[in-house]
């Protein structure tokens, strides 16, 4: 490692792995280190044995759960939106060849104690009990307005400028009542709370449009999910980065940062070596004096032997419990998966609950979601601190945000855009045809072995699930075909 690098990245969380992939594809020389002996940080996926060791302190999971390697248990419950920015990053870098996706069957929302499916087509919109007939008509006009809206063309504003008007004013213009606004803001714009109501409307309108485009892509819901767990995303981006020359070392503890006489970083010391770079990207835990705590998130992983009640016996989905429906200041998210996503054995289900901590009893705050899942075979509960940089980029040290409580990856991608601009001085354009993408296509036949990504003298890892087979069901073929068409269009 005694050499010069354009950028040194500390931590293999999803934000860091995406940036390593993009920067490597764009010709940057990257050194990527992690103090852990596995990829993913908070976005890793655990086998059953790994989960029991982490949460219960025992080496082996109960035998009645089946083989440990049949389980891929996500630490962070998030679903990619099928037309979201993370999918654009996957297409832009060519990471598609390392991943297989399945769509999630449903998006649901709680209203007055009952779970309702969020409409995904015209027929469902007509029959939904989420709003009355007249509100449905007004919602249709509102969605038509969003579909035609062009922020650079005032003729599409229909008398209200979304760049200046608040979201409350936009709702009022279209005659949407409080219940409809609550549904739109939390089940479509996917906000955690109501802070957005008094802010400029344009970002919210874009989020609603993204939701609609994502539903249209595959039907049923706006979400898709990588087979074998969210941890596959981190590893896929890391593999692609390695193809383009990034150096990876796991299990490496950073001893100290090295600064020049002006106080700017010029490298770091690790394992007795001094890799050099004037730009370091770090996760918050690597720079504790340069970050501030902004809150906490409570998360629970639940193992079930039955599908989630009230969700149409769906094999996967997301249920949103809006704040006003459960007497809170922020929403609770309940997501669930099955063996069809290669995360658990047949007959078992994984459910994930998360929310922002508001009291001194964080586990009890999740009771409304726990009640929906009973009986529960096993619960893994934890509280995570959330950190944000005090001043990212100072002295050449750039810092990512902790993963938040939202249900999707759009805020992670916001961080990717911010950090890319800090590191390169340029805006990241994931739609732009770059020379690196041509190299990606030429490298499409490359196979990266696990040895390419393992640190020297690494301890043996738990067995991983077998790679995806060539035989895909019709649904997977459809998703693959659409994603690859996006690549070809570029």
Automatic annotation (TrEMBL):
Molecular function GO terms recorded: Rab GDP-dissociation inhibitor activity
Domain of life the protein comes from: Eukaryota
Protein name: Rab GDP dissociation inhibitor
Basic and acidic residues bias locations: 469-479
Biological process per Gene Ontology, one example term: protein transport
Region (Disordered): 436-479
Family that this chain belongs to: Belongs to the Rab GDI family.
One GO CC term, this protein: cytoplasm
């Amino acid at each position: 490692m005694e050499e010069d690098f354009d950028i040194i990245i500390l931590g293999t969380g999803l934000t860091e792995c995406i940036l390593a992939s993009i920067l490597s594809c764009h010709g940057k020389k990257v050194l990527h280190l992690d103090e852990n002996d596995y990829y993913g940080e908070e976005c890793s996926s655990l086998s059953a044995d790994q989960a029991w060791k982490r949460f219960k302190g025992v080496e082996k999971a109960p035998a009645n759960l089946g083989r440990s390697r049949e389980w891929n248990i996500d630490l962070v419950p998030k679903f990619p939106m099928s037309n979201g920015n993370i999918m654009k990053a996957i297409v832009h870098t060519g990471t598609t060849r390392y991943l297989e996706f399945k769509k999630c069957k449903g998006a649901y929302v709680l209203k007055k104690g009952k779970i309702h499916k969020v409409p995904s087509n015209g027929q469902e919109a007509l029959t939904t009990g989420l709003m009355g007939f007249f509100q449905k008509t007004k919602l249709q006009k509102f969605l038509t307005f969003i579909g035609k809206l062009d922020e650079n063309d005032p003729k599409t504003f229909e008398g209200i400028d979304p760049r200046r008007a608040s979201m409350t004013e936009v709702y009022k213009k279209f005659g949407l009542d409080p219940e409809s606004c609550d549904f739109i803001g939390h089940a479509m714009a996917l906000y955690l709370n109501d802070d957005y109501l008094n802010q400029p409307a344009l970002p919210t309108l874009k989020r609603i449009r993204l939701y609609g485009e994502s539903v249209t892509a595959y039907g049923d819901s706006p979400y898709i999910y990588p087979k074998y767990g969210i941890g596959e995303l981190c590893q896929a981006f890391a593999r692609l980065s390695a193809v383009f020359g990034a150096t990876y070392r796991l299990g490496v503890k950073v001893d100290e940062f090295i600064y020049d006489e002006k106080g700017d970083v010029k490298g770091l010391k690790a394992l007795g070596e001094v890799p050099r770079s004037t730009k370091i990207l770090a996760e918050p835990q690597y720079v504790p004096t340069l970050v501030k705590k902004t809150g906490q998130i409570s998360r629970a992983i639940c193992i079930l032997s039955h599908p989630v009640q009230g969700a149409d016996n769906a094999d996967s989905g997301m249920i949103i419990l809006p704040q006003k429906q459960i007497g809170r200041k922020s929403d609770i998210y309940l997501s669930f998966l099955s063996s069809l996503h290669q995360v658990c054995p047949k007959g078992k289900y994984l459910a994930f609950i998360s929310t922002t901590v508001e009291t001194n009893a964080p586990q009890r705050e999740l009771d409304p979601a726990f009640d929906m899942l009973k009986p529960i075979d096993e619960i893994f509960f934890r509280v995570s601190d959330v950190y944000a940089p005090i001043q990212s980029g100072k002295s050449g040290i750039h810092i990512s945000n902790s993963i938040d409580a939202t249900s999707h990856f759009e805020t992670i991608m916001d961080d990717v855009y911010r950090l890319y601009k800090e590191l390169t001085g340029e805006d990241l354009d994931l739609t732009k045809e770059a020379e690196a993408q041509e190299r990606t296509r030429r490298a499409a036949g490359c196979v990266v072995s696990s040895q390419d990504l393992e640190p020297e003298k690494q301890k043996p890892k738990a067995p991983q699930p077998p790679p995806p087979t060539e035989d895909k069901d019709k649904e997977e073929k459809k998703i693959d075909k659409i994603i690859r068409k996006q690549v070809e269009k570029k």
